[in-house]
């Protein structure tokens, strides 16, 4: 799945399949300007920053069990969001510090370091990377990902895929080759 925020005409947190199909609103009420999100892949939770409502909130993948982690004026200066173990990590653009926020107790906030001009944060650690199983976009014997001549996108599950073409090409009737 692909998770994303939108604060155009109607602010929301959404998800869809990797090929863009099955687009689903997860959060569409009491939300104004969601600017960053982070996923708990193990427990299937979505965390996001709303800089207008000055809050960090969380829901499960279906949009249920919504909770506010923390609220306050300091949120309007936050950008980027990452999750690792019991903590959310974000950047305070006002003083360029990396903040650590306890995701269970939002009052436990600690500045860890300062960075010049940071706007995004990611945690890279072996334990945050899930094991990859075989999937529908694996390269076939002829060297094509998922049997697609250009682009292979996972669909509704790791067993399903959709072929797409680069700009200027159209998908052939076989659903795999581009012309």
Write a concise synopsis of the structure shown:
The chain contains no helices and 13 strands. The protein is mostly beta strands. GO terms for molecular function: Wnt receptor activity; Wnt-protein binding.
Please, could you describe this protein's structure?
Pfam families: FXa_inhibition, Ldl_recept_b. This protein is an all-beta fold and 179 residues long. The protein folds into 2 domains: 2-125, TolB, C-terminal domain (Neuraminidase); 134-178, Ribbon (Laminin), CATH 2.10.25.10. 0% of the residues lie in helices and 40% in strands. It is built from no helices and 13 strands. A hairpin with a 4-residue loop joins β4 and β5. The two termini are 28 Å apart.
Give the topology, please.
Blueprint: E1 2-6, E2 12-16, E3 24-27, E4 34-40, E5 45-50, E6 55-60, E7 67-71, E8 78-84, E9 87-92, E10 97-102, E11 109-114, E12 151-154, E13 161-164
Antiparallel strand pairs: 1-2, 2-3, 4-5, 5-6, 6-7, 8-9, 9-10, 10-11, 12-13
Helix content: under 10%
Structural class given helices, strands, pairing? mainly beta
Strand content: 35-45%
Q: Major beta sheet, specifics?
A: 4 strands, antiparallel
CATH homolog superfamily of the largest domain: TolB, C-terminal domain
Shape: elongated
GO molecular function: Wnt receptor activity; Wnt-protein binding
Protein name: LRP1B protein
LDL-receptor class B repeats: 1-43
Pfam families: FXa_inhibition, Ldl_recept_b
């Amino acid at each position: 799945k692909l998770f994303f925020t939108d604060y155009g005409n109607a602010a929301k947190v959404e998800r869809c399949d990797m090929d863009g199909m099955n687009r689903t609103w997860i959060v569409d009420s009491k939300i104004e300007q969601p600017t960053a999100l982070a996923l708990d892949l193990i427990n299937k939770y979505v965390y996001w920053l709303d800089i207008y409502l000055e809050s960090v909130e969380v829901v499960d993948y279906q949009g249920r069990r919504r909770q506010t982690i923390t609220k306050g004026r300091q949120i309007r200066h936050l950008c980027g969001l990452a999750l690792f173990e019991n903590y959310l990590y974000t950047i305070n653009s006002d003083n360029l510090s990396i903040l650590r926020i306890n995701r269970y107790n939002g009052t436990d906030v600690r500045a860890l370091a300062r960075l010049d001009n940071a706007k995004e944060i990611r945690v890279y650690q072996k334990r945050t990377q899930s094991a990859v199983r075989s999937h529908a976009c694996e390269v076939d014997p002829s060297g094509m990902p998922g049997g697609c001549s250009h682009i292979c996108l996972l669909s509704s599950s790791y067993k399903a895929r959709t072929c797409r073409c680069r700009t200027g090409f159209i998908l052939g009737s076989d659903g795999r080759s581009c012309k």
